[in-house]
């Protein structure tokens, strides 16, 4: 998102801190150690709700395009029958005997109503196009700068 906005993290940011987690990034931001941080909206909301982050002192600058919750993946070499059986099992697990709504969890332990086993991965094309701008060279430069704090 920074690159798309014309901001070069290596050239334009004073420093980069790899905080280790979404909540740690937000803690660095609130402490004034950085001017901006990247974190999931789930981490932001949880910290605000818990009183661990002052939403008056920390302002949301931008939200990324929606990214589906934690993916479930399967090996491409599986037979079509096995792939279809897996899709059916995950897609209908919310209806399985003994499964309660509290058992169906997504990213960050957030309750979801079901898993979408027929998700069209083409939805991710735009996000992947943006992510492709973070080449190994750019990634290396970011890591080098983060190491110089």
Characteristic key phrases:
single chain, 149 residues, mainly alpha, 6 helices, 36% helix, 0% strand
What report would you give on this structure?
The chain is an all-alpha fold and 149 residues long. The protein has helices at 9-12, 22-30, 41-49, 80-92, 125-131, 136-146. It has two domains: 9-67 and 135-146, no CATH class; 80-118, no CATH class. The longest helix has 13 residues, at 80-92.
Total DSSP E strands: 0
Please give the count of helices. Answer: 6
Poorly predicted tracts of residues: none
Query: How many individual domains?
Result: 2
Shape: globular
As an assembly, this protein is: single chain
Distance between the termini: 23 Å
Largest sheet descriptor:
none
| Secondary structure category | mainly alpha
Cα gyration radius (Å): 19 Å
Share of β-strand residues: under 5%
Mean pLDDT: 89
What is the string of SSEs from the N terminus onward? HHHHHH
Assign a percent range to the helix content. Answer: 25-40%
